Amino acid sequence: MIKKDVPGFLANRMQHTLFREAISIVENGIAEAGDVDDAIKYGFGMRLGVSGPMEVIDRGGLDLTYSIHKYLFPHIESSAEPSKLMVQLMDEGKLGFKTGEGFQLWSPGQVKASNETLTRGLIQVSRALGRL
């Protein structure tokens, strides 16, 4: 149960926190956009449909999570402003799927394939979780 209204609501706050860090990784030359996507899709993102973040923390232990946070948090993006790279791309008219380029290049075929893969994947996950 949501206990109070906050800007961005619940899921959008978490989603855009992840987006901020993903963009920062690309902006700082740590990895390419596709590599960031793959790290999520084929890494920890695979478990998020069945085990939320609080459950993952409890499973691993608060002591371990605390140690990781103590070390890692000073190195994670904490800007209160949108990414300069994202603003630059928008200024250049690079808006993602709708223009064929954003953080990555997208041909019409790739856009179609990505949308189809997303739809199929969501249906498969929903079925596996008994939600369809």
Cα end-to-end separation: 23 Å
Our Rg estimate from Cα atoms comes to: 17 Å
Number of helices: 6
Give the amount of beta strand, in percent: under 5%
What's the order of the H and E elements? HHHHHH
Helix content: 55-70%
Report on this model:
Helices cover 56% and strands 0% of the residues. Helix 3 packs across helix 4 (62-72). The model has no long low-confidence stretch (mean pLDDT 96). 1% of the residues are buried. The chain is globular. It has helices at residues 11-27, 33-41, 53-60, 62-72, 84-91, 108-128. The chain is built from six helices and no strands. It is an all-alpha fold.
Q: Which key terms come to mind for this protein?
A:
mainly alpha; 132 residues; 6 helices; 0% strand
In brief, what are we looking at here?
With 132 residues, this protein is an all-alpha fold.
Q: Secondary structure elements and their pairing?
A:
Layout: H1 11-27, H2 33-41, H3 53-60, H4 62-72, H5 84-91, H6 108-128
Helix pairs in contact: 3-4
